[in-house]
Amino acid sequence: MLKSPLQLYLQQCSDLKIRQNAYAVQQLNLNEQLPAKFNLESNSAQRLFTAEELKPCLKFAFEPLLKSFEQLSLLTDLNISGQHIGDRLFISLLGALKSSGCILQSFNAGYNDLSVLSVTLLFDYCDKKIQQIDISGNPIQDDALLYMAESKKHFRSTHLSLSNCQLTSNCLNNLSKCLRKTFMFVSTLDLSQNNLDSSDHSFNSYMELIEWTFSKNCRLNLSKNNLSRYQIHVIKNRISKGQLAQIDISENINADFNTMQQLEQQLLESQKWKPSDD
């Protein structure tokens, strides 16, 4: 039976007498759409496999791959997005990374069927030096934001992606706390494809989020969030034309340009914000 490229790679690794820091891998990308880069500094030549070659056997080979992760002490950038490995393998991966002593600067764990348990353990593991965290496409829901808000860690992350995480307006208060305490240095925040249409009880928290992103000059993505015309109305008139580039409110309910013009005219006429009658 022919071995897949990843199986051959793992066999090659096991055949080597690996000393401490024998791996000099700094970037490991197992995303199904991008090439996976392996830079093995040893007696053997460098090997490069594409993700398409790796994909068929990746899930089955992930457990033996975990042993290799324990040797990757120089790893700084890890992309395992789109592998759907689930909580069990992900938690094992975190254990292997912790054993290696590596300090990640970028971690993309998007679309891996992770629950709030995995995400809370991820934030326990992550070093404060991590620059980019992407956990998009995992059904972490609102509970993960509660944990993040209560965390005593202070990350210096510049990019935080929570797109398509089944978040609702109920998490807005915790999200604002999280940004003020844990992720105060974020300059790009992706909350697209959630359900952040705020109800009356969460409106103040919603506006706190908007104000915080503008005060920190943070780029905010709120596209595909079922925002109402009133919410878009408020956002439109809370920001200056120069700040408009900082926020993406595309593909929301009635978010077309004509509607925005009408709402702006209503504001000028009424001199106060109020929802439309319909």
Automatic annotation (TrEMBL):
Domain of life, source organism: Eukaryota
Annotated protein name in UniProt: Leucine-rich repeat domain superfamily
Classification of source organism: Eukaryota, Metamonada, Diplomonadida, Hexamitidae, Hexamitinae
